[in-house]
Amino acid sequence: MSNIEKLHKEWQSLQPLKRELQHRMDQQFMFDFNYNSNHLEGNTLTYGQTKMLLLFGRVEGDGLMRDFEEMKAHNVGLELMKREAQDKERLLSENFIRELNSIILAGDFYKTGRNGEYRYKIHTGVYKTRPNSVITLSGEEFDYASPEETPALMKDLVLWYQEEEVKQNLSVIELATLFHYRYIRIHPFEDGNGRIARLLVNYILVRHGYPMIVISAADRKNYLDVLNKCDETTGKIPSDGAFATIEQINPFVDYIFKIIEKKLMFAIQLANGKIKEIVETDEQNVGVNVGVNVGVSDYIIEHIKAKPNVTVSELSELLQKNTRTIERHLKNLREQGKISRVGSDKTGYWKISIIPHF
């Protein structure tokens, strides 16, 4: 991992970033991470709706109220995770993981069974009381740890992490990846396990001075395929997966390694002023190829889709551009026939005439 180590050393030498740059980077990550991690689990909010909700607390357009609630709660969990990771005196604990689960799921709720014939209550922040499993692509049922096994396996997982962090036998990337895999094979909660796993990967990265990463919803198939390859190596017995070795999950290590390597490269370019932003969201077809910048006009259209009566000042705040820039892009979009204005400037709304293919 010499290249990663070199990049990490360079990234560390650039710390601390200027306050304005750090704010912009944190804000963009907030949008991209919350959007993608929730979309991997089926959240229906658009990227524009996500930004509007997280910036202004507004519910705009169509969408399930539960999706709005969980998106906002997930961001609270993200902020809690960052604070916890930055406190080097506090060790990772089961209590923190349970608290994180309770926060991101926004309280207890009811869920419909896989066959649609019954509803059951999800108790957040407590380990599962019923078995959970997933149906693989081949149609087989793949079981996670049983409710009876879960408390002991979670205790072992957290203790292993605490000890391994001190021993440093694994690199930070190996430690984060192996923790994710072992955690997922336990699947300790009745819901929210994937989101918790991705939060805890970033917990480990933040704790060791790495930039946080996004696993794009657009890359969902590759993400799940890589985990499935590791399952084939470790076997179907949940406890075997919960004690997997780093050698058994090489495909997943390679997958996360590439994401972190790209993120480090683009974060360094951003810090050195060579690029203006890092975008990590699938609605702009970026996927894991962080650093590809989408035009301001495309973002404007996305926000108009979410909120037709969005104002110039709101667009300015959302896109971190001055109002003159926003007005110029709006004018160009109107001249190109991509948008039109219905009604007056004060009480009217925007109408999309041509939806671009990003």
Describe this structure in words.
The protein has 358 residues and is mainly alpha-helical. The chain folds into two domains: 2-284, Fic-like fold (Orthogonal Bundle), CATH 1.10.3290.10; 296-352, Winged helix-like DNA-binding domain superfamily/Winged helix DNA-binding domain (Arc Repressor Mutant, subunit A), CATH 1.10.10.10. It is 55% helix and 6% strand. It has a two-stranded antiparallel ribbon with strand order 1-2. It has a two-stranded antiparallel sheet with strand order 3-4. Strands 5-6 form a two-stranded antiparallel sheet. Strand 3 (133-135) and strand 4 (141-143) form a beta hairpin. The longest helix has 22 residues, at 65-86. The relative contact order is 0.12. Residues 283-294 have low confidence and may be disordered.
In which order are the strands of the major sheet placed?
Answer: 1-2
Order of helices and strands: HHHHHEEEEHHHHHHHHHEE
The appropriate CATH architecture of the largest domain is: Orthogonal Bundle
Count the DSSP helices: 14
State the helicity in percent bands. Answer: 55-70%
Mean pLDDT: 89
Stretches with pLDDT under 50, minimum 5 residues: 283-294
Sheet of most strands: 2 strands, antiparallel
> How is the CATH topology of the largest domain named?
Fic-like fold
What's the structural domain tally? 2
Strand content: 5-15%
Q: Which overall shape is indicated by the principal axes computed on the Cα atoms? A: globular
Going by CATH, the homologous superfamily of the largest domain would be Fido-like domain
CATH class of the largest domain: Mainly Alpha
User: Could you give the distance between the termini?
Assistant: 34 Å
